[in-house]
Amino acid sequence: MTSPYLFKNVAYNMKKFFHGTIRVLDIDIRENIENISESVEPADLAVVMLPPHASIVQAEKCGKVGVKALVMITGGYDGDQRKRLIELKEKFGMRILGPNTIMGVVNTSSGLNTTFERGTMPRKGDIAVVSQSGGVGACLLDWACYYGIGVSKFAFVGDKIDVDDVDLLHYFGQDSQTKVICLYMEGVKAGRDFIDEARKITKLKPILALKGGVAEESARRAKSHTASIAGSDQIFDAAFKKAGIIRVGSIEELMNGAIALSKQNPMHGDSVAIVSNVGGPAILAGDSVLKQGLRLARLSESVKSKIESLYPGIDASNPIDLIADARAERYGKVLDLVLRDKHVDGVLVINMLKSTFFRPGDARIVPYIAAKHPRKPVVDVPAGGEDFERVYRTIGNSRVPLYNLPNKAAVALKILREYGKMLQKH
Amino acid sequence: MTSPYLFKNVAYNMKKFFHGTIRVLDIDIRENIENISESVEPADLAVVMLPPHASIVQAEKCGKVGVKALVMITGGYDGDQRKRLIELKEKFGMRILGPNTIMGVVNTSSGLNTTFERGTMPRKGDIAVVSQSGGVGACLLDWACYYGIGVSKFAFVGDKIDVDDVDLLHYFGQDSQTKVICLYMEGVKAGRDFIDEARKITKLKPILALKGGVAEESARRAKSHTASIAGSDQIFDAAFKKAGIIRVGSIEELMNGAIALSKQNPMHGDSVAIVSNVGGPAILAGDSVLKQGLRLARLSESVKSKIESLYPGIDASNPIDLIADARAERYGKVLDLVLRDKHVDGVLVINMLKSTFFRPGDARIVPYIAAKHPRKPVVDVPAGGEDFERVYRTIGNSRVPLYNLPNKAAVALKILREYGKMLQKH
């Protein structure tokens, strides 16, 4: 992690994206580091990417000239070196993120980007990510960039000699640019404080967590992988519940859940209506909704008969099959009627067979109608590959989250429901 | 489904892809269908896409001139109309697929393509798909095309007045171009025959099944959606087990499992080694492997010490973390050593942080080494978005299946293990 190539990438990213002033000191570590003449200047933040001893030397120089915060990228610090860093932090009142943060921080608003993935910058948005692992964080960052997910900040916590999970939670809890907080964690140091801080935040904004090292064997490994101790999984589960943190099972669920929470309001009941133009995928969606512990809404008779009289041939039992030739008009009318039904808490739309006769209006009607019923979440499934991409290109930036398969949309609704339940408790 | 636009798409696909001779009869259904003068000619196969009455008239003409098989696209046949079709099939000895197949058939080898998704043709390969639902089939087809999955044939079964699941199973069981059979089903008519036929086939080639209408409420709906009766889910589960059919939970698992079975040999034990250049994703992979009921292989001491002496600083406990700067040489050596270990039955490779310093050789080494150990399956996870795409572009056509997240690769290994167990029983 001290390769000049990676260092150049960090410098490149800082210059390319950051809106403030930057100074790059390219220190040759083959020289006697204590005698390097290049001077460190006062700054709000210094990014240090050198082997441990050289990093400490530079950290001290930073402290002396009044640098307020350090992002320390590299790892491999021994006990004495960590102690020395903590002394510097206390002596100069600097905050330190790391060491061993690997990728450091990304802030889409200020343009701060200390990652070594050249040119990698997610779209501006309101999802914050905190990762205890460089690898998982890098995967989440790549995922966010590739799928155009709107991000406020990324933080890679590393060895946490100073800034820790609680500090970051506190920060993101207050951060007006962050609406949803995503955590990847393997262990936690100050468990009680973490729960207390999270409990305060989850009343205001949702926190999603993916826990690594769930199984005992992986957990044993996790112990050596980061500096913190991976607790038993049951303890984590109880802690997450107590804190109001919504737990997810994979990187994809973490991102898909965050997108749902960022775009839609929580769901205030268990009853889901499925509005589809194809039968089979609607049946799979029904299976998934029930598997997630949600219910298939029993539509009001008045709504059913209204739909059936408007569109003879349609059976408006939930899942509602609009038939393959449904266009914007039919989708719009039925979706509106269903969202007005007091027996419906949220809607899963399926919008398929579009490749050959796609019209943008067929996609746009969904967020248009959904916006009229902001209290009830709507998720949309243009199931498949090209079908998904076409709809994504058309309404990917709308407030309706899109998923390429019904089971993923059902998980998203489940997460919206869990957050709804959490809020009801308070 | 009788729209002239869709009809034109079917004709377009037939002309574009089919290697044989085609004649398109564009019949105007506003005319008196009995008196249409256009003559039907002798042929191996006729595709009929007209409303029920008109379809029956044309089916009879086909029978009279000796057409051997009909693909009947449209639905909506009443009892008398079905009876009439069955009479025609018996009188003329024609085979009928449908009616209500929606998309009909695709054969990547002969180029036969009766779907109305204009220009949609999957890559040639050895995965066959049979779908009881037009919508799910269309989604699978779109998925296969979009992700470049190699397909032998697609069949949309529809109302099964003649050709049914058992016939199709039998056909694909014998088909030398098909190595893996994927089923989407909501119900089955001749349950006993279906199990008997599947039992014979699964000794020779794997069958994967996704069942729709699992939950009671969806099942009730499924009943009205297709002509067959959706059985209780437990009965299906028992039947699948008895038949040696591997059951999956989603469209993505169906496709990912088929890719694994098509490219790799079954796994002959439960022990998985994880070879990764990042810690966190390897921990998540370990969790997923254990969640799937597989085990993390305990490497032989000799293999461990060999790896650790070759690469000081690496802890060769499984999951093996090769450290982020691992390149082709380190991946190749370690993967080869691990595959030689008799305690290892299969390997999950994680290959990350590639976006900025990707070299094709780093990806190519994985299938190169895997090919030397054909009895042990290897799956590769270039986790993320762009990272995945880069590696996919490089080795997407190799014999090593690629997944964008570790949990998906663990499911693939589980499916390879299930097929291995199935074969051991015989």
Furnish the topology, listing elements before pairings.
2 copies of one chain form a homodimer.
Chain A lengths: L3 H14 L27 E4 L3 H13 L4 E4 L6 H14 L2 E3 L7 E3 L15 E9 L2 H13 L3 E7 L8 H10 L5 E6 L5 H12 L4 E5 L4 H10 L7 H11 L2 E3 L2 H13 L7 E6 L2 H13 L3 E2 L4 H10 L9 E2 L6 H13 L5 E5 L9 H11 L7 E4 L4 H10 L10 H20 L1
Parallel strand pairs in A: 1-2, 2-3, 5-6, 5-7, 7-8, 8-9, 10-11, 10-12, 10-13, 13-14
Antiparallel strand pairs in A: 4-6
Helix pairs in contact in A: 2-3, 5-6, 6-8, 9-15, 10-15, 12-13
Number of helices in the DSSP assignment of chain A: 15
Distance separating the two termini of chain A: 46 Å
How would you describe the oligomerization state of the chains in this entry? homodimer
Averaged pLDDT of chain A, please?
A: 91
The percentage helix of chain A is: 40-55%
Number of strands of chain A: 14
> Would you list the SSEs of chain A in sequence order as H and E?
HEHEHEEEHEHEHEHHEHEHEHEHEHEHH
Low-confidence region ranges of chain A: none
What does this structure look like?
The mean pLDDT of chain A is 91. Chain A has 15 helices and 14 strands. The two termini of chain A are 46 Å apart. By secondary structure, the first copy, chain A, is of the alpha/beta class. In chain A, helix 2 (52-64) links the parallel strand 1 and strand 2. Chains A and B meet through helix 4, helix 7, helix 10 and helix 14 of A and helix 4, helix 7, helix 10 and helix 14 of B.
